[in-house]
Amino acid sequence: MIADVREAFQQALAGVLGREVEISEPLLLAGGASKEAWAVDAHGEPLLVRRAAVGVIHRHTLSLRDEFAVLQAAHEAGVKVPRPYGYLPDLAGREAFVMERLSGETIGRRIVQRPELAAARAGLPEQLADELAKIHAIRVERVPFLEEARFERIVEELDEVGEPHPAIELGLWWLRESHPRPRPVVVAHGDYRIGNVVVDEHGLVGVLDWEFAHLDDPVRDLAFGLVRAWRFGIDDKRLGGIGDVEPYLERYNELTGFDARPEELDYWELAGNVGWAIGCLTQAHRHLSGRDRSVELAILGRLGAEVEYEICHLLEKAAA
Amino acid sequence: MTERPTAQELAEAIQEFLAGEILPTITDHRLRFRTLVAMNALGIVYRELAQLPPEDDAEQRELAARIRAGEVEPGTLERVKADVEARLEIASPRYLERYR
Predict the structure, then answer these.
(1) With A41 labelled, which of A69, A172, A246, B54 sits at a CA distance of 20 to 30 A?
(2) Does residue B11 sit in the same domain as residue B47?
(3) Which letter, b or e, does each residue of B50-81 get, where b requires 16 or more Cβ atoms within 10 Å of its Cβ?
(4) CB atoms B10 and A298 under 8 Å
(5) Phi/psi of residue A229, each to 5°?
(6) Residues near A107 by Cβ (< 8 Å), separated by ≥ 6?
(7) Using one digit for the tens of pLDDT, what is the confidence trace for B17-52?
(8) Who among A173, A235, A284 is closest to B67 (CB)?
């Protein structure tokens, strides 16, 4: 990498940690089109630097400043998260923040399949419930910049794509018709699922990816990890390909006193699928519009049909 | 029924990936030559697809608009599911086995 960028990291990390530091060569990790992730060690301490990518502006995700503030609030609330070190308004020309780099597995497919993680999987439903209960107990005043979710937002996103998708329309129609009694909103993670958590052989190590945090019905957050796409091929384990829903729901209800009902989970599981089906289309349009040319984004436009099929399947079950 | 990306747009995306990300990393001469030949073949596919008439999505648009308006007649779900299944037979046929 360019020497002055390394120099910028060196200075910034010294500022954040409050002392002179010797840093390793910063390594740009793969993945994440909107934000860069750099792995760097300062005096042997493993750090991760999240930094804005060039020229990418995303609606509906938090700025790095706000994402960092949410991470701090979660850390204060005792949620298992990477320790937040500091926000950097200008790291070689772009905003960034520094946090602990947790070790463990984050790749969903491996978490659901690896034999050496079998014992960890057995404990994950309760552990996921523990952390989510702590997240939902964060005081809203602590993160006043978070916005409340609006159902119409995903409809607007679908309309911006401009393609006809009757299966998604049917899903939206059902969601409008069958809305459960709304619950008072809580601080929601917004993307709480396998793939956004770190797991090692002992179990859950930490919750990552806070950029979709917002205020919402808690059961929506609770149900997002049930969406089939996030089971990574282990379809019979409804909770993220790792376990059953019952111990997860039971533990969550025990800790929060919310008494979330299985029918509410069904509703929000379908909502999660509708949201992700639209997400596939908007991702593909990042490619098609020329904003981010990528074959990975492009193919999501076609693979969204998988999610639409799941929507139909869930609608059949709901009608039965 | 139309699908985005279209087959032509997918061929284009693969072409860009091969030219932009794969080709620059290949040092082996034989592999480099064969990759160029593959890209040439993909170019033929792309141009052939460009000659096809655009598909008509009027029926899907009408159906989507009716559902949006709340006009969901009996049998709508069955019809929509069959359409999605037909798309999956192209896009991801193995996915359907997960429901059988």
Answers:
(1) A69
(2) yes
(3) eeeeeeeeeebeebbeebbeeebeeebbeebb
(4) yes
(5) -60, -25
(6) A195
(7) 999 999 999 999 999 999 999 999 999 999 999 999
(8) A173
Residues B71 and B40 both lie in one domain: no
Domain carrying residue B42: 1-55
- CA-closest candidate to residue A52, choices A32, A68, A41, A36: A36
Point out the least confidently predicted range of A118-122, A211-215, A287-291, B59-63: A287-291
Which numeric CATH code is attached to A108-319?
A: 3.90.1200.10
Q: Is B93 at the interface with chain A, CB within 8 A?
A: no
Query: Is the Cβ pair A169, B68 closer than 8 Å?
Result: yes
Handedness of CA A83, A78, A141, A261 (dihedral sign): positive
What is the 3-class SS of A131-175, one letter each residue? HHHHHHCCCHHHCCCCCECCHHHHHHHHHHHCCCCHHHHHHHHHH
Question: What CATH number belongs to A3-100?
Answer: 3.30.200.20
> Do B7 and B48 fall within a single domain?
yes
In this structure, are B45 and B8 located in the same domain? yes
Whether A284 sits inside 8 A of B3 (CB atoms) is: no
Q: Which residue has the tokens 């034989």?
A: B30
User: What ipTM was reported for this prediction?
Assistant: 0.94
**Alpha carbons A215 and A245: distance in angstroms, whole number:** 23
pLDDT digits (tens, 9 = 90+) for A12-52: 888 888 888 889 999 988 766 578 899 999 988 899 999 98
Per domain, the residue ranges of chain A are 3-100, 108-319
pLDDT band at A2 (very low <50, low <70, confident <90, very high): low
Considering the domain architecture, whether residues B3 and B41 belong to the same structural domain is answered as yes
B7 and B37 belong to one structural domain: yes
What is the number of structural domains in chain B?
A: 2
Q: Name residue, tokens 């074959």.
A: A295
CB-based contact A298 B13, cutoff 8 Å? yes
Considering the domain architecture, whether residues B2 and B41 belong to the same structural domain is answered as yes
